[in-house]
């Protein structure tokens, strides 16, 4: 199934005229998108950064933006609110400090579908809720804009309270530079499903494969140093993925040796993916789509703010660091510190 793709010609910036745009958060994405908006022509006085007093607020001020530390005041001003703080803190901050004070006709912009898909945010029926979700880190959103290039972005109108939700989403996409390359019609559901699936099914298996491959090769007599560099520290995997993005997932293999091409293609086609497919389907339907992960994650959100072993994420890092791969890399990096 093909998705509609929107370009600059599909977006009318005039719909943003005289609207007060508030960014909740000035981190990775907030800083990039706010600067892109201003450089597109949104007046500086029409952009407000809502942020607590911290280094991000200081950064916003240094870049010429007005910062409001009082979230109630910021909420009352917003015609458009970019919700760009981490997923796990959005419900508490938005529902308690913004939602009660937002205009009934305000537009809420999300860059992650998680909290909308799982219905964790409280919106007024007349509000527009739109997704403008760049598919790359904020520094690239900014640098590509400055180079006059676009970047991939997902776009949707999740709640069309005004009847103008998609038009506003398109205008905002153009203002941050996304429609120059083409903004892809998507949904909070699609964005969330793909994100969580990658995080809970695809990448865990990749980490496991590297971990077990490391152990097997170590048993065969390969050194820690050779393995670390061969498998990832040389940055060859990063270069492979970059080529895949530029030329094609399979086509990039032509840059490899003939031995490599033959080994990878014949090996991949010979593998039976039935077990992996069933594992992936189990994660998708019994952990992601049914909300099980969301419910379990919600139970530990407060603990994630703590330091030390009480933070479950810190404990996971500790356990991962104790694996043979983790210990070997620690030794290698200590020995070769001057070369890294």
TrEMBL record:
GO MF annotation, one: ketol-acid reductoisomerase activity
Which keywords label this protein?
A: Amino-acid biosynthesis, Branched-chain amino acid biosynthesis, Oxidoreductase
Q: In which pathway does it act?
A: Amino-acid biosynthesis; L-isoleucine biosynthesis; L-isoleucine from 2-oxobutanoate: step 2/4; Amino-acid biosynthesis; L-valine biosynthesis; L-valine from pyruvate: step 2/4
Biological processes, Gene Ontology terms? isoleucine biosynthetic process; L-valine biosynthetic process
Write down the InterPro entries for this protein, in alphabetical order.
6-PGluconate_DH-like_C_sf, KARI, KARI_C, KARI_N, NAD(P)-bd_dom_sf
Q: Which SUPFAM superfamilies match?
A: 6-phosphogluconate dehydrogenase C-terminal domain-like, NAD(P)-binding Rossmann-fold domains
Identify its protein family: Belongs to the ketol-acid reductoisomerase family.
Q: Which PANTHER family match?
A: KETOL-ACID REDUCTOISOMERASE, MITOCHONDRIAL
Q: What is this protein called?
A: Acetohydroxy-acid reductoisomerase
């Amino acid at each position: 199934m093909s998705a509609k793709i929107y370009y600059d010609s599909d977006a009318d910036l005039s719909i943003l005229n005289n609207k007060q745009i508030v960014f909740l958060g000035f981190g990775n994405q907030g800083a990039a998108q706010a600067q892109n908006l201003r450089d597109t022509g949104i007046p500086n006085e029409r952009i407000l950064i809502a942020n607590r007093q911290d280094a991000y607020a200081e950064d916003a001020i240094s870049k010429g933006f007005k910062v409001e530390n009082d979230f109630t005041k910021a909420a009352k001003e917003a015609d458009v609110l970019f919700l760009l703080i981490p997923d796990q803190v959005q419900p508490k901050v938005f529902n308690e400090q913004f939602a009660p004070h937002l205009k009934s006709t305000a537009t809420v912009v999300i860059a992650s579908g998680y909290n909308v898909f799982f219905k964790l945010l409280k919106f007024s029926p007349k509000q527009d809720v739109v997704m403008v979700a760049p598919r790359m880190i904020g520094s690239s959103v900014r640098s590509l804009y400055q180079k006059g290039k676009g970047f991939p972005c997902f776009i949707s109108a999740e709640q069309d309270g005004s009847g103008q939700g998609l038009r506003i989403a398109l205008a905002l996409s153009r203002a941050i530079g996304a429609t120059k390359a083409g903004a892809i019609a998507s949904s909070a559901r699609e964005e969330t499903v793909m994100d969580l699936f990658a995080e809970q099914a695809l990448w865990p298996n990749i980490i496991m494969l590297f971990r077990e491959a490391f152990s097997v090769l170590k048993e065969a007599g390969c050194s820690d140093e050779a393995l670390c560099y061969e498998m990832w520290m040389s940055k060859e995997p990063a270069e492979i993925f970059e080529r895949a993005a530029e030329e094609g997932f399979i086509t990039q293999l032509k840059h490899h040796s003939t031995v490599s091409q033959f080994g990878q293609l014949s090996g991949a086609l010979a593998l039976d993916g039935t077990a992996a497919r069933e594992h992936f389907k189990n994660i998708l339907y019994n952990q992601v789509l049914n909300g099980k992960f969301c419910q379990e994650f919600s139970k530990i959100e407060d603990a994630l703010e703590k330091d030390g072993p009480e933070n479950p994420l810190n404990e996971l890092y500790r356990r991962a660091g104790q694996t043979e791969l983790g210990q070997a890399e620690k030794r290698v990096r200590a020995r070769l510190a001057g070369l890294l």
